[in-house]
């Protein structure tokens, strides 16, 4: 059962949890699990790609910005996916404000990062950051195919 807004969607779903110690192997594990669950739920290829990108960005941010291990949980059904990534950093990030102004390559070169959360927000039905009593925060994204 997946909570989507205030409505509970009762569908068959699969769930996976992965402890992430950092590095490319952990990101590969998260992506592989994502592809398997989305494929099992019969998501179209484009939607599977979007979900994989959301998982990749959230796991990468957790590894990059926290000093300890992280945990990803992913629940996927035919109707929706809920991605939750916990890390030990209590800082709640600010989502970038979309700009309609064109960006030239020379303007973007000094800041080659900082676009991931904007991408996640644009691909997700909702994106929340929840402080945790145990410390740190959980990034929670809901993606629909």
List the helices and strands and how they pair.
Blueprint: E1 2-4, E2 7-9, E3 13-20, H1 23-40, H2 45-65, E4 70-77, E5 81-87, H3 105-108, H4 116-123, E6 126-131, E7 137-143
Antiparallel strand pairs: 1-2, 3-4, 4-5, 5-7, 6-7
**Compute the gyration radius: what is it?**
15 Å
Oligomer: single chain
Q: Biggest sheet: strands, sense, closure?
A: 5 strands, antiparallel
Mean pLDDT: 82
Helix-strand pattern: EEEHHEEHHEE
Distance between the termini: 16 Å
Structural class: alpha+beta
Q: Number of helical segments?
A: 4
Query: Helix amount, in percent?
Result: 25-40%
What percentage of the residues does DSSP assign to strands (E)? 25-35%
The spatial strand order of the largest sheet comes to 3-4-5-7-6
Work out the number of β strands.
7
Query: Which consecutive residue ranges, at least 5 long each, have pLDDT under 50?
Result: none
Rough outline: globular
């Amino acid at each position: 059962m997946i909570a989507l807004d205030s409505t509970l969607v009762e569908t068959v779903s699969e769930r996976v949890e992965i402890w992430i110690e950092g590095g490319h192997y952990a990101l590969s594990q998260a992506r592989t699990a994502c592809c398997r669950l989305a494929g099992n739920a019969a998501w179209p290829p484009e939607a599977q790609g979007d979900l994989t990108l959301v998982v990749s960005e959230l796991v990468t941010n957790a590894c990059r910005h926290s000093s300890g291990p992280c945990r990803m949980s992913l629940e996927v059904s035919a109707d929706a996916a809920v991605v939750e990534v916990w890390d030990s950093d209590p800082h709640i990030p600010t989502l970038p404000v979309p700009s309609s102004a064109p960006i030239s390559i020379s303007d973007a070169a000094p800041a080659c990062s900082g676009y991931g959360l904007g991408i996640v927000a644009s691909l997700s039905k909702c994106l929340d950051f929840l402080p945790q009593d145990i410390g740190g925060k959980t990034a929670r994204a809901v993606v629909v195919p």
